[in-house]
Amino acid sequence: MITFFRTIILYVLVIIVMRLMGKRQIGQLQPYELVVTIMISDLASIPMQNTGIPLISGIIPIITILMMQIFISLVVLKSNKARKAVCGTAVMMIKDGKIIEENLKKEIFSLSDLLESARIEGYIDVSEIREAILETNGQLSVYGYDKMPVPFNVIMDGNYIEENIKSAGITKDRIQDIVSKKGAKDESSVLLCRYFSDGKWYIQLKGELKTI
Q: Can you tell me the distance from the alpha carbon of 94 to that of 101, in angstroms, rounded to the nearest whole number?
């Protein structure tokens, strides 16, 4: 009975902790989030299996990890530099039908994995791919010449995304001109500014429920 109730308590605790961490599918977890998930499962299983270990010995580490995860998430949310350090950055793997071999080696991403990911997205011929981007969660985003324009998040939560601005081939002056026409004083008042490769823009200011 002791094991039964300890299991229930830890089960409920883990559910609460995972709920507080936010809604993410396993394939969408950032590296640090995956580490947290694995550690929590291990910490919960030890006192669950060994009744000789005080229950509090499993609860305290789990709560501590939750607090660390929330802290890191807040830091990552507010700082682009911190996000790069913790999560890394998206990397271009295919550009205009050409595989970028240097980035394959840099990301330790095999050619077979790249081609497999492209096939999953419906592309057998690499020459049909305009851009393929390896996201920070390990998934490959593929854009063909026949699909929607490539989006570039140039402002997120009031901060310029330098690498995306460079990839999009635009300037900060151009972005500032566009957002100012939508009523933004500067980038700090912009929640999201997205530029598309066909020249279109998506802009939402902070505090707005509807896009403009």
A: 9
Contact 104, 93 (CB under 8 A): yes
User: CA nearest 126: which of 97, 163, 84, 92?
Assistant: 97
Mapped onto helix, strand or coil, the DSSP state of residue 198 is coil
* Domains of the chain as residue ranges with CATH: 2-86 (no CATH), 91-144 (3.30.240.20), 151-205 (3.30.240.20)
Given CA atoms 15, 19, 20, 22 in this order, what sign does their dihedral have? Answer: positive
Instruction: Going from the first residue of the chain to its last (212 residues), give the mean pLDDT of each consecutive group of 10, the final group possibly shorter.
Output: 76 76 59 78 80 82 84 80 79 92 90 92 90 86 82 90 90 93 89 92 81 44
Beta sheet of 129-134, edge-to-edge order: 98-99, 91-95, 129-134, 140-144
Q: Which residue has the tokens 């566009």?
A: 178
pLDDT at position 1, please? 65
Tell me the one-letter amino acid at 111.
Answer: L
Cβ neighbours around 57 below 10 Å, total: 12
Radius of gyration, alpha carbons of the chain = 22
Q: What pLDDT is attached to residue 78?
A: 78
What CA–CA distance (Å, rounded) separates 135 from 95?
Answer: 15
The token duo for 186 is 């500067």
Do 62 and 14 form a contact (C-beta atoms < 8 A)? yes
